[in-house]
Amino acid sequence: AQKVTQAQTEISVVEKEDVTLDCVYETRDTTYYLFWYKQPPSGELVFLIRRNSFDEQNEISGRYSWNFQKSTSSFNFTITASQVVDSAVYFCALSLVPDGNNRLAFGKGNQVVVIP
Amino acid sequence: DSGVTQTPKHLITATGQRVTLRCSPRSGDLSVYWYQQSLDQGLQFLIQYYNGEERAKGNILERFSAQQFPDLHSELNLSSLELGDSALYFCASSASGTGVHEQFFGPGTRLTVL
């Protein structure tokens, strides 16, 4: 069965600090996709990034970066120079390709509070 | 704005009642997914439809049912409502039912059962 664990429940940072969110996943499949979604206080879920299991190259997109390590089954997400607008709940999610239906298994989420 | 619309935004009803939540996917998307977000269970996948056909079922109760219509909009029907059904219900859509594509979520319907 697939499972996503986000151990940190709430993280508070002062504006302009970096914040890293940990995500550990479990799956027996070799082909899968990982996602990060953001849920601001308004409630909607916003897609941020997607990474497939074949590509361990870490990337940076603006103030977001992610570190995918297959050996430790981790897909960590970093916000650089945090801003108050980054205050939200961030969800890590896993989708199995062999599943064929693209359903997402979500972690419990990390509440990020950016203090001005 | 994700392009996925959901109505109504809020719904307050009583135990034992039946409600219908509606979702319109992004233009061109054939797959619709329903998720439930509650404090105790987190975000859980309920059901997926692809081009009118049920594709996958998750943790969906027998009291709940869904369908996708020829115009691709979808409805989630919740019946014999219980207090524990109070939650935020999300609809998401993606381009295809096979392969893995990012899902774009609607704003959600907040259901309160009194």
Summarize this, please?
The complex is a heterodimer of chains A (116) and B (114). Chain A is an all-beta fold and 116 residues long. Chain A has strands at residues 3-5, 10-14, 19-21, 24-26, 32-39, 46-52, 59-61, 64-69, 74-79, 88-96, 105-106, 110-115.
Q: Describe it for me?
A:
- The complex is a heterodimer of chains A (116) and B (114).
- With 116 residues, chain A is an all-beta fold.
- Chain A contains no helices and 12 strands.
- Chain A has strands spanning 3-5, 10-14, 19-21, 24-26, 32-39, 46-52, 59-61, 64-69, 74-79, 88-96, 105-106, 110-115.
- In chain A, the strands form 3 sheets. In chain A, strands 2, 5, 6, 10, 11 and 12 form a 6-stranded mixed sheet that branches. Chain A has a 4-stranded antiparallel sheet with strand order 3-9-8-7, with no helix packed on it.
- In chain A, a hairpin with a 4-residue loop joins β8 and β9.
- Chain A is globular, with a radius of gyration of 14 Å.
- With 114 residues, chain B is mainly β.
- Chain B has no helices and 11 strands.
- Chain B has strands spanning 5-7, 10-13, 19-24, 31-38, 42-50, 53-57, 64-68, 74-78, 87-94, 104-105, 109-113.
- In chain B, the strands form 2 sheets. In chain B, strands 2, 4, 5, 6, 9, 10 and 11 form a 7-stranded mixed sheet that branches. Chain B has a 4-stranded antiparallel sheet with strand order 1-3-8-7, with no helix packed on it.
- In chain B, a hairpin with a 2-residue loop joins β5 and β6 (53-57).
- Chain B is globular.
- At the A-B interface, β5, β6 and β11 of A face β4, β5, β9 and β10 of B.
Topology summary:
The complex is a heterodimer of chains A (about 120) and B (about 110).
Chain A: E1 3-5, E2 10-14, E3 19-21, E4 24-26, E5 32-39, E6 46-52, E7 59-61, E8 64-69, E9 74-79, E10 88-96, E11 105-106, E12 110-115
Chain B: E1 5-7, E2 10-13, E3 19-24, E4 31-38, E5 42-50, E6 53-57, E7 64-68, E8 74-78, E9 87-94, E10 104-105, E11 109-113
Parallel strand pairs in B: 2-11
Antiparallel strand pairs in B: 1-3, 3-8, 4-5, 4-9, 5-6, 7-8, 9-10, 9-11
